[in-house]
Amino acid sequence: MSEAQVTAVTREHAGEHADEHEAYCAVEHQLGVLLRRARAFSAEMGREVHPELEPGAYSLLIRIDEVVPARSSDLTEYFGVGKATISRQLKVLEELGLIEREPDPADGRAHLLVLTGEGRQRLAGARSARQERFRAMLGTWDLGDVELLARMLGRFNTLTDSWTEPGRERGRA
Amino acid sequence: MSEAQVTAVTREHAGEHADEHEAYCAVEHQLGVLLRRARAFSAEMGREVHPELEPGAYSLLIRIDEVVPARSSDLTEYFGVGKATISRQLKVLEELGLIEREPDPADGRAHLLVLTGEGRQRLAGARSARQERFRAMLGTWDLGDVELLARMLGRFNTLTDSWTEPGRERGRA
DNA sequence: GATTTATGGTTGCCCAAGGCAACTAGATGG
DNA sequence: CCATCTAGTTGCCTTGGGCAACCATAAATC
Fold first, then answer.
1. Cα end-to-end span (Å), chain B
2. Nucleotides in chain C near protein beta carbons (<7 Å)
3. What's the total number of domains in chain B?
4. Is residue B117 part of a domain?
5. What does the pLDDT look like over A68-85, one tens digit per residue?
């Protein structure tokens, strides 16, 4: 059993009361650090992947590849950012020839997003390069812990997609 | 035992081989989403805390409070961002009367950072407001899982502080 | 002790990500 | 036909942050 789990299980049988506050505190703290480093981190990743592929582009491509055919609004919802941002980034991706935007036959306002061959190729390259970086970082971890981290992040993310809808454009109230 | 742990432990006894790739992939994916949402998240937090206290300021104050007396370079190292950024943000905090910068008696170049009474007060307010938000989000989780999330994030963060030193100013090579 | 080099911080200039608002164009419903 | 709604685009703004140049002090070397 991995380091993290042992500690967790131990604590679970201890005082579940005063610990709560401390636990929120700890999450808040670690998340604070992570988010502060977010940019540097993304940049670090992005740079090694492909200079032409800017940091933000990558996750966008991933998503477009995952859900075909994607629509702009899907992406805004998924990432919890405004459609303006997505629109601009898509424009760049299109100019780089990584995606194509064909008009949605079912809805004249919308566009369907697909990766071009070039896009798919670059994505594959970027993906493996990134995964290499992740392996380099997480390689010393227990496999279970890596999976655990992914799962915890995933669960946290689902929390945030609830409150991502209201307010400040995005879901547009 | 919490949901997350059960799954992890189960998998740990399954195929530890092909899973590795998948695990890195998953971390990468979830982290991508999280980082994309980072801004919105911080903003959301910051706004409710105190309008006068901008999002980024909070974590800075926390750190300054934690390690007294703090020096600018401590903060740059801790957050993994350049000293320029920190310097600017400190200036704002000083103007808001939340911190004071007194010259370091031991080193004429450096400044020692301390929270003012006002700063300490605002920080306390902000802190509890934020924790309230975290409770609202994580409240449905098992206590063990909250602690686990904090721990996993913490471990991940320690990974990144290794590679935060080289390159792009920060550690200045 | 004077000169070089290193270090802590500040500032100017730039970029990227994102929000908001105003707008266009197609869709829907009266 | 007109009103309203919705998908995207674009202009303008703010934040966070990097880089480089710079200043002042410290250390090191001669």
1. 46
2. 7-13, 16-22, 25-28
3. 1
4. yes
5. 889 999 999 888 889 999
